[in-house]
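// run 5 | inverse folding | seed 20
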């Protein structure tokens, strides 16, 4: 015997509950919209910040203010590395008895010396990688030949160990200076230091889009690329473009005050 089916009764809808549910749905939709908009704004700010950072010179380190040591300049006068703090300065290792080892760098330094002549906020510093053989008299002769005058352009020596560690560990150069077959092997790249002791490098834009990359001011490498016919994608050669970026960076740093 079959059980009789009970008749279906339509559910009664409470208007107040319906209004409450609709209200909550509206609130959720508004909150979701605000959240999405806020996330979009944050993303936009982040992208703008990244683009702004790309426009600034790359910071790859900072000279420790405790890495103080004395140096002897080409006129045999004493000085300290800290005397350069608060200024914008370029520094490199050199072997003045082997002028070919820093030829590309030297040509750039000569133009920088002319461009910033008389600017007391700018210095050029050349550390001899062979201080035991290149004493102040040797450095003075090289400086006079180039027209490198104090206080704008320093040729300096210090203890060999101090110099080599400073170039490699503090300035982040590629190799530790050393001898091979009686010849000094070292990185002759120019290192740029800002007023706050930050080590700066070139921010090189890519011609086909994509993020720029940070590169050392290695003019020996740039000269090699030019000799091999490597193109930059613009009218400038590799050496010209790198020097343009260096000058552009120096000009920007000279316009900035020391951070309190």
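// decoded
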């Amino acid at each position: 015997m079959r059980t009789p089916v009970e008749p279906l009764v339509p559910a009664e809808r409470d208007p107040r509950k319906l209004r409450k549910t609709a209200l909550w749905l509206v609130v959720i939709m508004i909150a979701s919209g605000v959240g999405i908009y806020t996330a979009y704004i944050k993303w936009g700010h982040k992208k703008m910040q990244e683009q702004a950072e790309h426009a600034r010179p790359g910071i790859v380190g900072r000279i420790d203010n405790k890495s103080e040591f004395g140096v002897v300049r080409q006129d045999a006068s004493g000085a300290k590395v800290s005397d350069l703090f608060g200024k914008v300065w370029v520094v490199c290792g050199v072997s003045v008895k082997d002028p070919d080892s820093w030829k590309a760098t030297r040509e750039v330094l000569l133009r920088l010396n002319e461009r910033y002549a008389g600017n007391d906020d700018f210095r050029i510093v050349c550390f001899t990688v062979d201080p035991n053989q290149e004493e102040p008299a040797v450095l003075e002769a090289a400086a006079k030949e180039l027209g490198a005058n104090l206080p704008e352009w320093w040729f300096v020596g210090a203890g060999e160990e101090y110099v080599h560690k400073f170039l490699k560990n503090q300035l982040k150069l590629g190799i530790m200076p050393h001898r091979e077959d009686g010849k000094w092997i070292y990185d002759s790249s120019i290192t740029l230091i800002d007023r706050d002791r930050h080590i700066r490098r070139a921010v090189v834009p890519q011609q086909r889009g994509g993020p720029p990359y940070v590169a050392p001011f290695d003019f020996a490498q740039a000269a090699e690329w030019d000799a091999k016919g490597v193109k930059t994608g613009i009218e400038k050669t590799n050496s010209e473009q790198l020097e343009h970026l260096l000058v552009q960076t120096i000009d920007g740093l000279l316009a900035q005050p020391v951070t309190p």
